[in-house]
Amino acid sequence: MAISQTVLAELRTAAAAASDKLATDIVGLDVGERIGITDAFLICSAPSDRQINAIVDAIEVQLKQEHASAPLRREGRDSGTWVLLDYGHMVIHVQHEEERTLYGLDRLYADVDRVDLDLHDASEVD
């Protein structure tokens, strides 16, 4: 089951915003069939708490401006090592590089389809 065009557009907007703030290893995953409570994940990394917060801010601003979309829940902002933005139809994970390695979301969902985020730079992962 492929994600809808609406979700794809929002996922690409979030990925572009993250890329603009120098997020690394940006990955989109179609998790709808696997977990059933959301359609897609966006996972990206940053080396510092400050950069994680800048990425999260940029994602929220762009999704609000371009799609009038706001997160239903925001978790981890105070920790600075893993911020989760839950939009219902998609969940965005912005993780410190060490947290990403430790928790291995990429490994946990290695069997789901990756989403073409239409990024044209070195941070894209297909």
UniProtKB/TrEMBL annotation:
Keywords: Cytoplasm, Repressor, Translation regulation. GO terms for molecular function: ribosomal large subunit binding. It is found in: Cytoplasm. Functions as a ribosomal silencing factor. Interacts with ribosomal protein uL14 (rplN), blocking formation of intersubunit bridge B8. Prevents association of the 30S and 50S ribosomal subunits and the formation of functional ribosomes, thus repressing translation. NCBIfam families: rsfS_iojap_ybeB. Interacts with ribosomal protein uL14 (rplN). This is Ribosomal silencing factor RsfS. It comes from Nesterenkonia cremea. The gene is rsfS.
